[in-house]
Write a structure and sequence with these properties.
313 residues, alpha/beta, eight-stranded mixed beta sheet, 12 helices
C-alpha cells in the first residue's frame, strides 16, 4: 500500500504547475470537498468519491478500480488520509501512460502524423509543437495535409511564418497523401529533424474518411517503412467520454502511438485523463492548459495529481 512516506515528493510550485492547477480548478472542486468533510472511509464516503469521479469523467473502469482499492483499504484502516490513498491509486493508473515523446536521431525526418476530429485544436497544436521542437534545437518542417479546409492551410502557414518554418502545401482539394509524401521527400533532402504532418479533421464514425487516413499512412510507408514514427491523436478534454470513442476508432484505423489532450483548462471533466489511461493504455504525450505556446506541456503524473488533488496533509 502507498502512504505518505513512500509517495513521491510534492512537485515544486511554479508558473507551469500554477497554470495546470488553475486549468483543473473546476474538476478539483468536486474532489477536494471530500477531504474537508470526510475523514473515514465508510460506504457513504466511498459513494461520494464515486460520484465525484464519475462527474469528472474519470470513467467507469478507472472509478471501479479506484473504489476497489479504497474498499480494501477501508477494511484494514477505516480512519486514513483519503487524499493520500486517492493519489496512490491515480498514480497506479497513470504512471504506465506517462511516456514523453522522444525524437529519435536515427529517423530523418522523424515524422509525426497528426489526427483528430474537427475542432479539437489540431492545427494550433502543430504550431505549438513546432515552436517547442525548435527551442529544443531541432530543424522542423510542416506539411499542410488538411487540403479540405482552406483556412487550415493558411493557419499552418501563419505558424510557419511566425516560427520561420517551411510549410509544404498544395491548393485546396489536392490529395492529402500526395502533399505529405512530397513533404517527406523535401524533409529528407534538407535533412530536417522533425516533420509535422497535418490532416483534415474527420468524424471517427465516417468509414470513408478513416480509410483516407489509412491511405496517407500507406503512402508515407512507401518512402520510409518506419513512417510515421508517431501518430499523435489530438483530443478535446471537454468532450469527456466521447473522447474515448474517438480514440478507439482512430487507434483501430491507424494505430495511435500518443495522445495530446487539449483544453483541460476550464473543463470540469479533467478526470478523462484517468479514463484514457485505464481503458486505452496509450501514452499521453502532452496536455493543453491554455492558449500560449508554453501551455502545451508534456504530461507529468505528479503534476497532474497535485493539480487535481493537492498535497497530502
Amino acid at each position: 500500500m502507498f502512504n505518505a512516506k513512500n509517495s513521491p515528493a510534492p512537485v515544486k510550485e511554479g508558473g507551469l504547475l500554477a497554470r495546470l492547477k488553475a486549468g483543473l480548478a473546476r474538476t478539483r472542486v468536486g474532489l477536494t470537498t471530500i477531504f474537508a468533510s470526510q475523514t473515514t472511509l465508510d460506504e457513504a464516503t466511498l459513494e461520494t468519491i464515486e460520484t465525484a469521479l464519475l462527474q469528472a469523467d474519470a470513467g467507469i473502469d478507472a472509478t471501479e478500480q479506484i473504489l476497489s482499492h479504497l474498499r480494501d483499504t477501508a477494511k484494514r484502516q477505516p480512519s486514513t488520509d483519503i487524499r493520500t490513498i486517492l493519489q496512490a491509486e491515480m498514480r497506479r493508473i497513470l504512471t504506465p501512460v506517462s511516456q514523453p515523446l522522444q525524437i529519435r536521431a536515427d529517423a530523418k525526418p522523424f515524422t509525426i502524423l497528426m489526427v483528430g476530429v474537427n475542432g479539437v485544436g489540431k492545427t494550433t497544436t502543430i504550431g505549438k509543437l513546432a515552436k517547442q521542437f525548435q527551442q529544443a534545437g531541432h530543424q522542423v518542417m510542416l506539411a499542410a495535409g488538411d487540403t479540405f479546409r482552406a483556412a487550415a492551410v493558411e493557419q499552418l502557414q501563419v505558424w510557419g511564418e511566425r516560427n520561420d518554418v517551411t510549410v509544404i502545401a498544395q491548393p485546396t482539394g489536392s490529395d492529402s497523401a500526395a502533399v505529405i509524401f512530397d513533404a517527406m521527400q523535401a524533409a529528407r533532402a534538407r535533412q530536417i529533424d522533425v516533420l509535422l504532418a497535418d490532416t483534415a479533421g474527420r468524424l471517427h464514425t465516417k468509414s470513408n474518411l478513416m480509410e483516407e487516413l489509412k491511405k496517407i499512412k500507406r503512402s508515407m510507408a512507401r518512402l520510409d517503412p518506419a513512417a510515421p514514427q508517431e501518430v499523435l491523436l489530438v483530443l478535446d478534454a471537454g468532450t469527456g467520454q466521447n473522447a474515448l470513442q474517438q480514440a478507439e476508432q482512430f487507434h483501430a484505423a491507424v494505430g495511435v502511438t500518443g495522445i495530446v489532450l487539449t483544453k483541460l483548462d476550464g473543463t470540469a471533466k479533467g478526470g478523462i485523463v484517468l479514463a484514457i489511461a485505464q481503458k486505452l493504455r496509450i501514452p499521453i504525450r502532452y496536455i493543453g492548459v491554455g492558449e500560449g505556446v508554453d501551455d502545451l506541456r508534456p504530461f507529468v503524473v505528479e503534476e497532474y495529481i497535485q493539480a487535481l488533488l493537492g498535497e497530502s496533509s
